[in-house]
Amino acid sequence: MPDWLLYTGGRRRHDGIDRLPPPPPWRAFDGGPLLPPPSGGSGNTHQATTYRPSDDAVQQVNAALYLRRPLLVTGPPGTGKSTLAYAVAHELGLGPVLHWPITSRTTLRDGLYQYDPLTRLYAARDGGAPASDEDIGRFIRLGPLGTALLPYARPRVLLVDEIDKSDIDLPNDLLTVFEKGEYEIPELARRADPSADVMTADGPGGRVTVTAGTVRCNAFPLVVMTSNGEREFPPAFLRRCVTVELRQPADEAELSAIVREHLGDLADRSDDLVRRFFERSASGTLATDQLLNAVYLCRHADADDREALADRIMRRLTGPMDDD
Ligand SMILES: Nc1ncnc2c1ncn2[C@@H]1O[C@H](COP(=O)(O)OP(=O)(O)OP(=O)(O)O)[C@@H](O)[C@H]1O
Ligand SMILES: [Mg+2]
């Protein structure tokens, strides 16, 4: 394994992130005061510890870490685009993945923070402190993007999941934030005292101090943006990303290794299903987890039902729909 690779895809946790060199000068950020790394695992432990990335994916993850650039991960359904984020967070001990699922209604502001003026109003009405000095931070919750850009000493992992489902403006809006590595919270910035302890996307209890109404990152997060290719991205967006395309496993040996990683001994005698999956995927899209489901189910089903059952589970997602 070449020495420069911090993330190796080896599924074993290590402190390789400590070897991450300073950023290129054009991607250096100076937010502070520094926050300690968040505690807790990446979330999704089984997926994170069973993931077998391609060499290309390993290399591009490292490129994104070194260059402090977002990683755009494309590929067909079920090729492990989302799981990659959890696998990196687990191996490098980067804490819980900040998950931001994108829909056509998602705005930049949703990812940055939410301010809840109504609850604030009710709190004041019900005998809370006067509006000028009450704790406004209780009504501001940073979103996954907003939390990832806090001045952590180590990069957080932000999964911007299915960015191709977004409204047309979101990729460009994101670009601006990723270029600057900072954002403002106007509701705080315009106050006489623009500092507050706000909530984060890390769940209850996670509160951090925002000063001068602005959040600026220190270690740029590892941003993993996934796309099923439902949309083309503008060149200005692409040139600021590191990109990687994930593919279906290249051969039966690779597929078998993935099945064994997930199912251990339950994967014994699954060669026929792997072969069948591989044959069927030649004429249409099949996702790896369909094979995992089929192998698991067939271990519990009667031998006679095995083939028919597997075919029902391994239906092609595109291409001919007949189950031959
Ligand atoms: N290379 C791999 N090694 C181990 N498991 C894998 C691999 N690729 C996919 N899987 C498994 O397949 C399942 C689907 O992965 P995941 O949800 O990350 O795919 P995806 O590309 O994000 O799919 P979608 O486009 O539908 O969101 C997961 O259970 C994952 O663990
Ligand atoms: Mg996904």
Automatic annotation (TrEMBL):
InterPro entries the UniProt entry points to: AAA+_ATPase (IPR003593), ATPase_dyneun-rel_AAA (IPR011704), P-loop_NTPase (IPR027417)
Residue ranges annotated for the AAA+ ATPase domain, each copy included: 67-249
Gene3D superfamilies: P-loop containing nucleotide triphosphate hydrolases
Annotated segments matching region Disordered: 12-51
CDD domains: AAA (cd00009)
Cited SUPFAM superfamilies: P-loop containing nucleoside triphosphate hydrolases (SSF52540)
GO MF terms held by the record: ATP binding; ATP hydrolysis activity
Record protein name field: AAA domain-containing protein
Organism listed in the record: Actinomadura physcomitrii
